[in-house]
């Protein structure tokens, strides 16, 4: 009696667990159809050319989308350019601009001299008056 | 080649450290799954600490450091482990006892569910690791892998990574994960994302292995399969474990601390010899590693010490000698870990973001609306945090407790269950500590709860499963044992 009760309890228990295991498998990315890593696209790959033009260490300025909306882009840039420290400020001798291709004109509101346009909204500025 | 050597050194160092702490009377390869599971975490912990120390001291010959640590552990094993019984006899006598009776149907059913959930978890974890090589989510690239890059690529400027100019990267978070990643990168020669991915996989499945093996030793294989199946079938646990976040590594060390204390109490009951301080030393190290993994681990370290003190006091007023005897072994490893963390926090990391303004925090503590908001989120997250389908795992455990009815009952906790009592209390106190932090958070409380509470619950989930199944026992009313391997001990 107790054994059959236990069997029922364990069967229901196992079924409930396996439902969630099924969700786990269902939600997993389909093998063979992986998209290119978005993080790699928006960090390492996007900043590869710019990185070669920057000093390997120290602190440089960073401008991009203002506020929290630009936070992810800032951290992806920081991740790509480490061990260089990016300060979200234009008060540096070297400043990088990270915009979407369509909004790179926003950079003109800063008092900076464009040194090089890497395309796709990625810009390198020099700021003579900076500390 | 260098990477292979590094992997072997890491795991072997972890294994030797674990073996050093287990009873000298037991053979080196007894409780193998438990030791291997623990070795992964402790090996990575060793790698992390020695990488950090070598950065501090400016030592460049990392391989030499690793070999020195390994050799030291070998010497310690040779010195401190006496030759006990002959290996073969000892191994056979320490194997689990099997009933001659065939396993009941419920046991086979459970074994099938366990294997299926294990396969599903392994498949998903590997697929996710391949699909998201840089992790899945914000914390992987903005905190852990970013800090690892600064350590590895920064050279003499590695401290720049903990600059307050990068505030949202939590520069005050400790370094177990980043330094372990950087250690392996230094052998590979570049910052390949495969390293954090594999470390994530290792922590995820060693947590499962640890849960299974500890429950198997203490309560039998049925309890072990029940517990491991619940954890493997928690989608958020597998997803988070492969997202390259530090929450699953932290959950590993919390579980290791709890399980090692419970194993110690159990073995003291079997053999109260004075030379049984190895497991508390290792449990203290696990708590220290938890604190070296994330700030929440520091809270857990405090709560486990407090919980053990309170449970000791509850059994009767302890003398100072008793307290010293109980606490000295774990403090042997906790104190150095705390010194390391204190040095990091004082000399390298900027102040944390949660405790900056005392007056405002005090004002928030007196606001009842915040208590109510957090309590409601705790209630909601209790049912939602695992990303389960249809039946939440938390409810499943509650339902299991009642539905099992006559087949299981709550154990009467006695003196021998000091470890279990202290563990339950520590987990409860940790949850209370999280609650207190939400009360004073400088961020929007709903935003903070939304983005962190499910992960905080997951940090304690493996340990909760462990203490749940540890606190249940087979009814002795003549029912046949369900755990075919350990009559009268488990479910």
Helices, strands, pairings?
The complex is a heterodimer of chains A (131) and B (491).
Chain A: H1 2-27, H2 38-52, E1 58-64, H3 71-81, E2 84-87, E3 94-98, E4 113-119, E5 122-126
Parallel strand pairs in A: 1-2, 1-3
Antiparallel strand pairs in A: 3-5, 4-5
Helix pairs in contact in A: 2-3
Chain B: H1 2-21, H2 32-57, H3 62-80, H4 87-94, H5 105-131, H6 138-153, H7 176-188, H8 194-219, H9 221-232, H10 235-241, H11 247-270, H12 278-293, H13 295-314, H14 320-348, H15 358-365, H16 368-384, H17 393-403, E1 408-410, H18 418-440, H19 445-470, E2 472-474
Antiparallel strand pairs in B: 1-2
Helix pairs in contact in B: 1-2, 1-3, 1-12, 2-7, 2-8, 5-8, 5-9, 5-10, 6-7, 8-9, 8-11, 8-19, 9-19, 11-12, 11-13, 11-18, 11-19, 12-13, 12-14, 13-18, 16-19, 18-19
Number of helices of chain A: 3
Biggest sheet character of chain A = 5 strands, mixed
Shape of chain B: globular
Order of helices and strands of chain A: HHEHEEEE
Percentage of residues in helical conformation of chain B: over 70%
Low-confidence stretches of chain A: none
Which strand order do you get reading across the main beta sheet of chain A?
2-1-3-5-4
State the end-to-end distance of chain A. Answer: 83 Å
Number of separate domains of chain B: 1
The share of residues in extended strands of chain B comes to under 5%
Give the structural class of chain B: mainly alpha
Q: What integer is the average pLDDT of chain B?
A: 86
Main beta-sheet annotation of chain B? 2 strands, antiparallel
Taken in chain order, the helices and strands of chain B follow as HHHHHHHHHHHHHHHHHEHHE
Low-confidence stretches of chain B: 83-102, 476-491
């Amino acid at each position: 009696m107790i054994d059959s009760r236990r069997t029922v309890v364990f069967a229901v228990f196992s079924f409930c667990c396996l439902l969630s295991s099924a969700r786990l498998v269902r939600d997993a990315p389909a093998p063979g159809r992986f998209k290119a890593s978005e993080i790699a696209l928006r960090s390492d790959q996007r900043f590869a050319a710019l990185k070669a033009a920057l000093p390997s260490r120290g602190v440089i300025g960073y401008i991009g989308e203002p506020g929290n909306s630009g936070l992810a882009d800032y951290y992806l840039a920081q991740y790509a350019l480490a061990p260089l420290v990016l300060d979200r400020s234009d008060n540096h001798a070297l400043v990088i601009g990270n915009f979407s291709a369509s909004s790179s004109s926003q950079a003109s509101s800063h008092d900076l001299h464009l040194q090089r346009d890497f395309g796709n909204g990625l810009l390198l500025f020099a700021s003579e008056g900076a500390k | 080649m260098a990477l292979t050597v590094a992997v072997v050194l890491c795991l072997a160092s972890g294994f030797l450290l674990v073996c050093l702490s287990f009873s000298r009377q037991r053979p080196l390869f007894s409780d193998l799954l438990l030791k291997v599971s623990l070795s992964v975490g402790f090996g990575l912990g060793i790698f992390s600490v020695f990488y950090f120390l070598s950065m501090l001291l400016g030592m460049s010959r990392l391989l030499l450091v690793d070999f020195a640590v390994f050799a030291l552990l070998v010497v310690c094993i040779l010195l401190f482990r006496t030759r006990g019984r002959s290996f073969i006899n000892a191994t056979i006598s320490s194997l689990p006892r099997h009933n001659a009776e065939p396993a009941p149907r419920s046991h086979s059913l459970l074994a099938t569910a366990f294997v299926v959930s294990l396969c599903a978890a392994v498949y998903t974890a590997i697929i996710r690791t391949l699909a998201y090589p840089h992790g899945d989510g914000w914390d992987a690239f903005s905190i852990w892998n970013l800090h690892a890059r600064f350590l590895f690529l920064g050279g003499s400027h590695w401290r720049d990574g903990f600059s307050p100019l990068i505030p949202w990267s939590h520069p005050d978070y400790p370094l177990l994960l980043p330094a372990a990643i950087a250690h392996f990168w230094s052998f590979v020669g570049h910052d390949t994302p495969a390293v954090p991915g594999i470390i994530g996989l290792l922590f995820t499945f060693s947590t499962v292995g640890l849960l299974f093996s500890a429950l198997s030793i203490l309560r039998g294989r049925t309890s072990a399969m029940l517990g491991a199946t619940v954890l493997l079938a928690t989608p958020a646990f597998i997803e988070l474990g492969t997202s390259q976040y530090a929450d699953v590594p932290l959950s590993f060390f919390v579980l290791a601390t709890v399980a090692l204390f419970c194993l110690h109490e159990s073995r003291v009951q079997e053999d109260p010899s004075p030379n049984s301080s190895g497991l508390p030393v290792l449990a203290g190290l696990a708590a220290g590693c938890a604190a070296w993994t994330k700030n929440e681990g520091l809270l857990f370290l405090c709560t486990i010490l407090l919980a053990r003190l309170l449970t000791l006091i509850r059994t009767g007023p302890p003398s100072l000698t008793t307290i010293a005897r109980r606490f000295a072994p774990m403090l042997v490893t906790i104190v150095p870990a705390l010194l390391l963390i204190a040095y990091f926090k004082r000399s390298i990391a900027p102040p944390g973001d949660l405790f900056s303004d005392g007056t405002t925090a005090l004002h928030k503590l007196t606001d009842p609306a915040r208590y109510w908001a957090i309590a409601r989120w705790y209630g909601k997250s209790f049912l939602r945090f695992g990303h389960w389908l249809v039946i939440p795992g938390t409810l499943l455990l509650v339902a299991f407790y009642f539905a099992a009815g006559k087949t299981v009952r709550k154990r009467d906790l006695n003196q021998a269950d000091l470890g279990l009592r202290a563990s339950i209390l520590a987990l409860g106190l940790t949850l209370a500590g999280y609650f207190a932090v939400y009360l004073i958070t400088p961020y929007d409380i709903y935003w903070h709860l939304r983005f962190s509470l499910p992960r905080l619950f997951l940090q304690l989930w493996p340990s909760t499963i462990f203490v749940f199944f540890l606190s249940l026992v087979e009814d002795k009313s003549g029912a046949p044992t369900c755990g075919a391997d350990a009559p009268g001990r488990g479910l």
